[in-house]
Specification:
Elements lengths: L12 E13 L4 E14 L15 E10 L5 E9 L2 E2 L10 E2 L2 E12 L2 E8 L7 E7 L3 E6 L4 E8 L2
Antiparallel strand pairs: 1-2, 2-3, 3-4, 4-7, 5-6, 7-8, 8-11, 9-10
């Protein structure tokens, strides 16, 4: 019994949709990559037949623009979008939707043979959002906020 804190398998679900990705060379040094996913995730049978699967967004997408500056490095801007979705544990979809969100990442790499250095500023605009949130009959809505702006730096040495 899930209400007693035990793990219980969900009723059968169906996840069907469309996923597409396209790459364009906009000029000799600028390229774009666009991706989009449409997902229809529902329970096939059982108590929640026909209801949306919690936390499964119907729409997701990303756009990446990259500039190759040759000897001065490669630079990119990545925007990711995730649509609204039912709260975790809200199997009957009766407690509204968790808001969709978009983030912006900045990335760069420099090749100083034999070294390659990479840097990324994730969530560069420091957008406050929750990628995961749930609903509990005792606590109401609860959220697990994502990280704010973060800097990642890495280096690689090729032998």
């Amino acid at each position: 019994d899930a209400s007693a804190g035990a793990n219980v398998n969900l009723d059968p679900t169906r996840r069907q949709g469309l996923e597409t990705e396209a790459d364009w060379k906009l000029s000799s040094s600028v390229s774009a990559k666009v991706s989009y996913t449409y997902l229809d995730a529902t329970f096939r049978s059982g108590t929640y037949a026909g209801k949306r699967v919690p936390l499964a967004p119907t729409h997701q997408g990303s756009v990446l623009l990259t500039w190759d500056g040759g000897s001065i490095g490669q630079y990119g801007v990545l925007t990711r979008m995730v649509g609204k979705r039912a709260y975790g544990s809200d199997f009957d979809n009766s407690h509204g939707d968790l808001a969709g969100y978009a983030t912006l990442d900045l990335q760069a790499s420099w090749n100083f043979k034999p070294w390659t250095l990479k840097a990324q500023i994730a969530n560069a605009l420091d957008h406050k959002h929750a990628a995961f949130a749930g609903y509990s009959s005792t606590a109401g809505h609860y959220y697990y906020p994502t990280d704010g702006r973060a800097l990642f730096v890495s280096g690689r040495y090729d032998f």
